[in-house]
């Protein structure tokens, strides 16, 4: 297995992380997960745009060019002979003896890996069960930070209730999943939380909104209360790894049993058409 460290791709055993890495001390870093289909990175430019945005929002200096990132990502894919999988790219603020106050002069540390990950055919066909719980995260969920405690706690809680994914609500308003965005469908209209500071604006979310509009569907980017989940006609979650995955039930703070309906199927199909 070959991994990326700074600008080099080396065997995993040869790569080490420094003890003084701020990512390790403070979770002071950002990341992206990019899907690989047929050996090619999917929507790589949108992911790189978001990486630059996250870096800017956190005042992390990022001088690596888009061309370099693209080359490094492609090299990771080739060296690891990945056909269907993911690339993970992480950037921490860099090395500094532990101190809350960060210095602006330090150089970020770039790491990454690629691994095989098949499309989740079974889940794409049969759907997933969701666990609805409180959103206890901070108020900058728009930044793709590696600091994911609220997310991983919600995910564990979901798994402990035999659910595949957690979806979260802030004071009764549905936000997003622990690692996905949520859409619901009522009377042929799609509803999803707007891209504010309270959610991560998923690349898959953006692709699906575009596909839905192209198909003539009405898309409303407005926050909705948890009770609406119980009267939805259909629902699905989106993410790089899960694509468009239907929801078959919701338990936790609200209970609902859902049909996997025609609009979800239509959008799954439209998404699949985009894959290389
Ligand atoms: N997670 N919301 C959150 C909190 C996420 O962590 C993710 C992605 C998404 C969906 O974004 P996208 O469509 O760009 O993948 C929404 C990635 C896959 C992860 O952490 O593994």
Automatic annotation (TrEMBL):
The UniProt record lists the keyword Transferase: yes
Cellular component GO terms held in the UniProt record: cytosol
Enzyme Commission designation: 2.6.1.21
Catalytic reactions on record: D-alanine + 2-oxoglutarate = D-glutamate + pyruvate
Top-level taxon: Bacteria
Pfam families per record: Aminotran_4
Listed CDD domains: D-AAT_like
One BP term from GO: D-amino acid metabolic process
Residue ranges of coiled coil: none
SUPFAM superfamilies for the chain: D-aminoacid aminotransferase-like PLP-dependent enzymes (SSF56752)
Cofactors, names only: pyridoxal 5'-phosphate
PROSITE patterns: AA_TRANSFER_CLASS_4
Family according to the record: Belongs to the class-IV pyridoxal-phosphate-dependent aminotransferase family.
PANTHER family associated with the record: AMINO-ACID AMINOTRANSFERASE, D-ALANINE AMINOTRANSFERASE
Protein name per UniProt: D-alanine aminotransferase
Organism whose genome encodes this protein: Alkalihalophilus pseudofirmus (strain ATCC BAA-2126 / JCM 17055 / OF4)
Lineage: Bacteria, Bacillati, Bacillota, Bacilli, Bacillales
Gene from which the chain derives: dat
